[in-house]
Specification:
Layout: E1 12-19, H1 25-41, E2 45-53, E3 56-65, H2 69-76, H3 80-83, E4 87-95, E5 99-100, E6 107-115, H4 120-137, E7 141-147, E8 153-161, H5 167-175, H6 178-181, E9 185-194, E10 197-198, E11 201-202
Antiparallel strand pairs: 1-3, 1-4, 2-3, 2-10, 4-7, 5-7, 6-8, 6-9, 7-8, 10-11
């Protein structure tokens, strides 16, 4: 199933939800079906799946539609995972798609970057080089900046097909991002993921 986003989806938001690190494997397992059912019932979710590091699920990524940052933050309080105390942190930002292609593989990489504060000029100066870097990669996926409540860019999100490429290769490639080389980011994380919900529908059983 394609995950390319159209141009008429409205305002977009990203939630990166990181699990409590100790003793919460059973909490995730026991609330998974309720969580997925709730996501589908919202009629908001464009893409959702786990965040995986070293074969361990460490969180969830949700890309969804909404009216405002505050409205989406309030909505996500209803998530059964959230109510069960699974998450150590939930970061909700706006997101603007810059590039989107139809990508059919279920297996994904997620590169999630947060900017250092006061670096807007660095981001602006390196934007063209960053976009050229992405284009030169030939990867299929969705790319764009993370946004604060005022619409200012505060990070970057890249979600793309694995295509048989190993984690170490992707990590090395992400370090060549002109944004990374300009020391724009305070945090830069690479996760494995896979599609579970696409356009409001479940596409993977487990």
């Amino acid at each position: 199933m394609s995950s390319g986003l159209g141009s008429d989806v409205g305002k977009l938001f990203v939630a990166r939800c990181l699990d409590n690190p100790v003793g919460f494997v059973a909490v995730r397992r026991n609330n998974r079906e309720s969580h997925l059912g709730w996501l589908m019932s919202t009629d908001r979710v464009l893409l959702a799946g786990p965040l995986i590091r070293e074969k361990t699920t460490v969180g969830s990524l949700v890309l969804l539609k909404g009216e405002s940052l505050e409205e989406v933050q309030t909505l996500l309080l209803e998530d059964p995972y959230r109510q069960a105390g699974l998450f150590e942190s939930v970061k909700v930002t706006g997101w603007r798609q810059v590039y989107t292609t139809s990508f059919y593989s279920e297996d994904l990489y997620v590169v999630y970057n947060l900017d250092n504060e006061g670096m807007s000029e660095v981001r602006a100066a390196n934007r063209a080089a960053h976009l050229a870097w992405w284009n030169a990669s030939g990867r299929e996926g969705i790319v764009g900046p993370l946004l604060d409540e005022d619409g200012n860019s505060i990070g970057s999100l890249l979600v793309f097909e694995r295509e048989g490429v190993g984690m170490e290769e992707v990590k090395s490639w992400s370090l060549t991002d002109p944004y990374n080389q300009a020391e724009l980011f305070q945090e830069s994380e690479v996760y494995l993921s896979h599609k579970v919900i696409v356009d409001g529908a479940r596409v993977r059983a487990s």
